[in-house]
Amino acid sequence: MPAKSSAALERRSSQSSRSARATSSAATGDAPWLAANPWLANLPWMSAAAEYAVDAWQRSVLFADVMRQRGNQYQEHLAESAPNVLDFDAEVILDAHALPRPCNYCLMRIVPPKDTPTLPNARPFVVVDPRAGHGPGIGGFKPDSEIGAALRAGHPCYFVGFLPDPVPGQTVEDVMRAEAAFLEKVISMHPESAGKPAVIGNCQAGWQILMTAAMRPDLFGPIIVAGAPVSYWAGWRGRNPMRYSGGLLGGSWLTALTSDLGDGRFDGAWLVQNFENLDPANTLWRKKYHLYANVDTEAQRYLGFEKYWGGHVFLNAQEMQYIVDNLFVGNRLTSAELITSDGIRLDLRNIRSPIVVFCSYGDNITPPPQALGFVTDMYRDDAEVLSHDQTIVYATHDSIGHLGIFVSGSTGRKEHRKFVNNIDLIDVLPAGIYQAQIADKTDDTLHGELAEGDYVMSIQRRSVEDVRAIVQPDTQSDRRFAAVAHLSDIHLGLYRSLVQPWVRAMVTPTSAYWMRLLHPLRVSYELWSDRNPFAAPFAEKAERVRETRHAVSSDNPFLALEMAVSTAIEESLNFYRDMRDDGYEKAFEMIYGQPWVQALAGLHGSDGTAVRVHPGTSPEHVAFVREALELRRHEVRQGGVLEAGIRALLWVHRLHGEADERQFNLARSLPRGDAEISIERFREIIRRQAGLLRMAPSAAMEAIPGMLAHASPASIRLVAKAVKELSFAVPLEDDEQNDLERVLAVFERAAHKREADGDGAGKASVAAKPRATASRKATSTATTPRKGTTAAKKAATTAVAKSTRTSRAKKTI
């Protein structure tokens, strides 16, 4: 050993000798031979070893006792009639067993704590938990969670959970219809709500909620999908190996075999094992070693998580086969190829509510390409996004893992709380693609009091190209996955024709029961509990250890050696994982990249042409867009003072390309005259005015004086004041400042003109009922100013048109 290293270890040993001697003499209850040993007083190495030996023995006893508690907890959890891990009181509102197409889902109302009452008229939130092998409750696992964030903000909150066993014969479509029924129930319970329910779907529940929203878009407010895979072929080369599993196993035939061996049910424990296989270092070593090393403080956290992780559930064979064939292998959701039994095409472009996608670069189960790939699958450019009037907001985290998206306290306090507090801002965003960014609030933050909590959320306009830079779609990779999908259908057909009848003839309920019981994950819980006579005595022994606990000092050299060995084991397992994943990727590319394999799968040529079916644009949609554009041309001069104010505000900030929660909260605090505008009405106005500015910016701004021609001076000045204050909520560029001054001048001239016409006593009101778009009389009134207003209108038009011509930016928000 080098002299420096030896001296360093000697110093650490000497520093720990005093505490070691005290520990060894006090720990006679655990090792009486240590106290009588005279060598301990003179040999620092022996003292450190004795201290470490006592601590290691005690930690081992406590670790064994925690694992015993884990086994007992597992048995108790299985015995519950409706097992879940919710940290909130809840009551069942609607059980899907009673629906015309029953399934094992239910709608529960979260009972708000007494210190956080529900606000009147607040938008309800519905949190839907994933059924991906585990039981329900992860969305409300702790106070700092999605449910906790909604309750803290005063929203009524509902939870969609499920039972471990599916109803015989239930399908994915049955679950979708149950979720639609749940939303209908929530809407009926909150007729006074400020908006439609906001729905949060985690992981598997995310894509299922999107399918439901495509089927029933009328039921949804903003949709937040967290860690939800939607585009299943997407991924970064060298980083996302899970997507190769289907191809390396030959497709979905193994899913059918597993369901047949389970007597018509698919055991969710296999899905959990797939998750665990992704990170062998965590599964085989890090998770348990972290408990062992911190057993004095980590026991309750570990047991709480293991209650969720060990609560395995089941899916029907039909459900699992549908998911694997159409999503994991077929990737048919984003190409609009899925059709319900009653003929409804599940096209995600039909969703009219804002879609918020929350994903993380540290997520190895749902990486950002799989969470955001649906954007590049469905849309080729921004014009297509706008033509479908769809709003998509994405937010990315730099490092957090898959489960951390739902259960991390830091995520709950930051991202989820910000999404909840700004749900109305998200709801009123015009069509387009945006990125939500959350920054720390400091003393220098302008109008920091208008942002709740310690963070400020801003929403910035992005493009399809920005998303494409994240997803990095690869045509050659798509060809390989397309070959997998075609060959999977062939293998599944062969299995069903040649093997399945024999398997089903041999399987019995008893054999399926023993197969479930002997699953490796279940065995790890079943073996070590009070049912095991060797485990039961550890309860008493652990209690004695806690009474005489003597933790090793942090500078003990043997503790340092233990940690070094642990690090080496973890790094070795990580090296094995990297080599394994690299081998999987190379094998997948070697097999399915062969031209003859792709030819057998029915693919022809290798000229780089896309094999993904673009959802396309139906003739009906083309006609709809044409009619909508024609209608918009007639709407340019329609509307009143409120529409004019929103149009002006959007115009001023067209260069900024950003919405900020401070602006929105300031808008809420401004006086409204005698008006009370619903969030739905406000959303409709903003989206319409933004569309008009995109389509015909010059004509839209030239029409503002005519829109103010029938408003009272007080209303005009009230709206102008709001435009000014909202514009100053964030710093303005020079061009924006100039545009604001021109717009305010237009409003002031209109107010003066109304006073000159003898209408100065009008009451301030910004909620004038808009004129019908189909009315020729209304159109004539809106476009023809009253006699005497020509000069004022001409001056205003010239000023605004000049601003329009000098602006080079085309973005609007």
Structure description:
Helix 2 (44-79) packs parallel to helix 10. The chain has an eleven-stranded mixed sheet, sandwiched between helices. With 813 residues, it is of the alpha/beta class. The protein has 33 helices and 13 strands. Among the domains are: 3-81 and 533-553, no CATH class; 90-229 and 354-473, Rossmann fold; 619-806, no CATH class. Mean pLDDT is 85; it is low at 1-31 and 768-813.
List keywords for this structure.
single chain, 813 residues, alpha/beta, Rossmann fold, eleven-stranded mixed β-sheet, two-stranded antiparallel sheet, 33 helices, disordered N terminus, disordered C terminus
Please specify the SSE layout and strand pairing.
Blueprint lengths: L2 H24 L17 H36 L10 E6 L9 E6 L14 E4 L17 H7 L4 E6 L9 H18 L8 E5 L1 H12 L7 E4 L18 H4 L4 H9 L3 E3 L1 H10 L1 H14 L1 H15 L4 E3 H13 L25 E6 L7 H11 L3 H6 L3 E7 L6 H4 L1 H13 L1 H5 L4 E9 L14 E8 L1 H8 L3 H32 L2 H9 L2 H7 L11 H10 L9 H36 L2 H6 L18 H17 L5 H12 L5 E3 H9 L9 H17 L1 H6 L1 H4 L5 H15 L6 H23 L19 H8 L6 H17 L7
Helix pairs in contact: 1-2, 2-10, 2-21, 3-15, 4-5, 7-11, 7-18, 9-10, 9-22, 12-17, 24-27, 25-27, 25-30, 25-31, 26-30, 30-31, 31-33
